[in-house]
Amino acid sequence: MHISEGILSGEVMAAGAVFTIIGVTLGLRKIDYNRIVHVAIIASAFFVASLIHVNIGPSSVHLICNGIIGLLLGWAAFPAIFAALLLQAFFFQYGGITGLGVNTVIMAVPALLCYYIFSPFIKKDSKLSFFASFIGGAFATFCSAVLFASSLWFTEKKFFGIAITIIAAHIPVMIIEGFVTGFCILFLLKVYPEIFYQKNDSLQKN
Amino acid sequence: MFDEILAHKNSIIHELDPRTRIISSLILSFAAALSDKFLILGIYFLISLALIYMASIDFFYIIKRLKPVFLFLLMIWIILPLTFQDKMFLKIPFFSFSKFLTLSIPGLELCAKITLKSITIVLIFVSLVATMTFASIGNGLHKLFVSDKMVFLILMTYRYISVIEHEYKKLLRAAKFRGFKPRTNLHSYRTYAYIAGMLFVRASNRAKRVYQAMVCRGFNGKFYTLDTFDSSKLSLIFIFIIFAITFFLVLIEAWI
User: Fold this and answer.
1) Chain A residues within 8 A of B82 when measuring between CB atoms
2) Per-residue pLDDT reduced to its tens digit, B111-147
3) What are the structural domain ranges in chain B?
4) What residues contact B174, with CB distance under 8 A and at least 6 apart?
5) In this complex, which of A8, A48, A79 lies closest to B165 when CB atoms are compared?
């Protein structure tokens, strides 16, 4: 989900940049030096996971995984997503510099919301885990689509048609993303529960 | 996929120091993004073409790389003129019902502007920023007072993308050996979810090992780069020219 360059108005770009700077700064503050390698390599995994294409009828969509990233990293998702998007711009020309701020907000804010709303429900041996992460994944995609659409709408009220089309086009993606997030979180809970972000993090201390 | 083909060339652009290139691309991109007149946009487009030429990048190569941009623009061209309910340009009878498909002039104009802008901005990014190795981008960002942690994070992410991608290919190969064929069903989604999950597990495990190795070698939170760049005369002249041109164009736009 990328807003291409050259569409957004100055106000929306500025707002995106400001929110990104705030989010990234706060996110960085929450990462200690003994965790930063973990965040960075999870960010590379996020980058690679977004290259995975899954079939949907005759066409295919790529995974977004921002729900998973939110659940895994918490606030650190903000700088991680920023880094991944910068690298995407660098490697694939998905965008230039002007859209980076807004695109980071579109991906990272839903990740953060997903972390705050759904991570309390995701526990080992809890039957709610799958359900919560399914909803979390779908919700993160939905929020991204809404943020995408509303940044278009704030730019120009006449983009309404295109904004609605974008949200509608993302409904199947939401369902797929929900299933993938659900299965993925269940899998991680089973094989590697330490990966989830905890406040008194035990991951790096052992 | 992750080779830096553009970075290993010789041209004027490649001799500039990273800071100059990052700042000039920021200035030019935002100026182009905020401009609203066809004439001025055309000039920015010509500047971006000139930059591509100066960086001695093959035009066909660039067109191939711009595929995602073109796809997005195609969507815009299909949807926007039809949904923009303003001064109608043309009415097309729609299945001979009383409904009409209408193309509006402002919609078409906006499409043309967006096309021009987005191609210009991406070309500026490719010619100035994508022609650096990622290490020098990190170096440039560091010198531009981006925080240590962020630079470290970006460089680390960059470093491990190819490693994790290698892991992904391994997992995919393993799935294929076991007869996995991607289809539109829950089984495929579950398999992909497990592959993605395994990627995160391997990433986390590797992070642990990398961090331990770094601590063993005396990591103290600082990241040193070996590339050093002096701000040469060329860089100063370049950034001055970019400043002057942009300033001039902004003035003209305000004046017309």
Assistant:
1) 161
2) 899 899 999 999 999 899 988 888 888 888 988 888 8
3) 5-132+234-255, 141-216
4) none
5) A48
